[in-house]
């Protein structure tokens, strides 16, 4: 009986301790990642921000109960937060890192990006151990594949294999709520942010769908940087606009045009544009840009695409302020990002 108890105790140590080790270690170690929250910031351009956001989410999923990931503004202040223990991980360009504060940088795969932390062998070891295991998973290879395409403005979309963005699955899922071709929703997102999660307008619109924080909050967003939350909220806002405007027309193409215009300027202004009163050249140009991008994504000629503003018949717009009870969507002062270099993603030499 004594031998049996000894063997049982040894077996429990071998099986249970490795599984529970991280949590026990987190609670007792001064610096190692906390068991309840990992606080992170990303200060990167292009699609590097997107793939590193998902890497941080994957890391924190196995090391804590939740994660806080924010877009970084100023690297100097973020490094200061790290040294003051108000931030756990900063993801930034390797070229901008220097060791003046005694911090530790860890390069994971892509040598142009580094993860910066405070000194601590245990924390560094945890991160390296996780990455060594994660890079051998199917989830990691799928992640690299999704971001391995070049989604720059000069890409020949018509010759592509049907992949438009790293977030095609999210567009396909959410477009069903609108009854849209998913490529039309992707075209709107491209016009808003070029699929960059860290995109921010001068007025404060954030993320892939360029949601104003107040509007995003109404649709349940807790983190505008999160592509799943941002695309979902933007789509539900479009559904709201589409339902509001559906009483003015039964033509699905006219309704789509109105909804796109309203996403840019509000429902009331979209109806004014349609009627020709106080026509907004900015809204018209925005809607045309979305539809033109949709033509490109779908490989259709312009004349085969959705109706353009000058093709729309007159309908009774009713209350010209309809739809303006929601927060006006910002794009009038949006930073022009159409010609920025979005950057290739190179993880372990995979481009």
Spell out the blueprint of helices and strands.
Blueprint: H1 2-28, E1 37-42, H2 48-63, E2 66-71, H3 75-83, E3 89-93, E4 104-106, E5 113-117, H4 121-134, H5 138-147, H6 168-178, H7 182-193, H8 213-218, H9 227-245, H10 252-265, H11 267-275, H12 281-298
Parallel strand pairs: 1-2, 1-3
Antiparallel strand pairs: 3-5, 4-5
Helix pairs in contact: 6-7, 6-9, 7-12, 9-10, 10-11, 10-12
Task: Please explain how this structure is put together.
The chain folds into two domains: 31-140, 3-Layer(aba) Sandwich (D-Maltodextrin-Binding Protein, domain 2), CATH 3.40.190; 157-311, Lysozyme (Orthogonal Bundle). The chain is built from twelve helices and five strands. The chain is of the alpha/beta class and 351 residues long. Helices cover 47% and strands 7% of the residues.
Annotation keywords:
7% strand, D-Maltodextrin-Binding Protein, domain 2, disordered C terminus, Lysozyme, 2 domains, 351 residues, disordered N terminus, alpha/beta, five-stranded mixed beta sheet
How helix-rich are the residues, as a percent range? 40-55%
Number of domains: 2
Low-confidence stretches: 2-31, 308-328, 330-351
- The first-to-last residue Cα distance is 60 Å
Beta-strand proportion? 5-15%
How would you spell out the order of helices and strands?
A: HEHEHEEEHHHHHHHHH
Strand count: 5
CATH class of the largest domain: Mainly Alpha
Taking all Cα atoms into account, the compactness measure Rg is 24 Å
Instruction: Determine the structural class based on helices, strands and strand pairing.
Output: alpha/beta
Q: How are the strands ordered across the major sheet?
A: 2-1-3-5-4
Which whole number gives the mean pLDDT?
A: 76
CATH-defined topology of the largest domain = Lysozyme
């Amino acid at each position: 009986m004594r031998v049996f108890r000894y063997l049982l105790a040894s077996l429990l140590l071998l099986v249970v301790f490795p599984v529970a080790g991280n949590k026990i270690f987190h609670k007792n170690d001064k610096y190692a990642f906390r068991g309840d929250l990992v606080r992170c910031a990303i200060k990167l351009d292009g699609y590097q921000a997107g793939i590193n956001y998902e890497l941080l989410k994957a890391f924190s999923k196995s090391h804590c109960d939740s994660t806080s990931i924010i877009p970084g503004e100023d690297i100097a202040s973020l490094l200061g937060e790290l040294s003051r223990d108000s931030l756990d991980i900063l993801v930034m360009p390797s070229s901008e890192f220097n060791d003046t504060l005694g911090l530790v940088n860890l390069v994971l795969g892509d040598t142009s990006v580094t993860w910066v932390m405070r000194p601590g062998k245990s924390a560094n070891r945890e991160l390296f151990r996780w990455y060594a295991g994660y890079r051998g998973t199917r989830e990691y290879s799928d992640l690299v594949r999704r971001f391995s395409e070049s989604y720059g403005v000069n890409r020949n979309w018509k010759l592509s294999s049907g992949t438009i963005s790293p977030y095609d699955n999210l567009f396909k899922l959410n477009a069903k709520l609108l009854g849209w071709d998913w490529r039309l929703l992707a075209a709107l997102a491209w016009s808003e942010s070029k699929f960059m999660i860290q995109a921010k307008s001068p007025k404060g619109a954030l993320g892939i769908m360029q949601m104003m924080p107040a509007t995003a909050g109404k649709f349940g967003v807790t983190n505008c940087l999160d592509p799943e939350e941002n695309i979902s909220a933007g789509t539900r806002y479009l559904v709201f606009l589409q339902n509001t405007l559906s009483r003015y027309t039964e033509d699905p193409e006219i309704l789509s045009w109105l909804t796109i215009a309203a996403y840019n300027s509000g429902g009331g202004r979209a109806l004014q544009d349609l009627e020709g009163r106080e026509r907004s050249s900015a809204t018209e140009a925005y809607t045309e840009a979305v539809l033109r991008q949709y033509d490109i994504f779908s490989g259709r000629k312009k004349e085969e695409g959705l109706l353009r503003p000058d093709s729309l018949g007159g309908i009774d717009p009713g209350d010209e302020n309809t739809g303006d009870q929601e927060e006006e969507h910002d794009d009038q002062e949006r930073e022009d990002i159409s010609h920025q270099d979005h950057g290739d993603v190179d993880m372990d030499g995979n481009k």
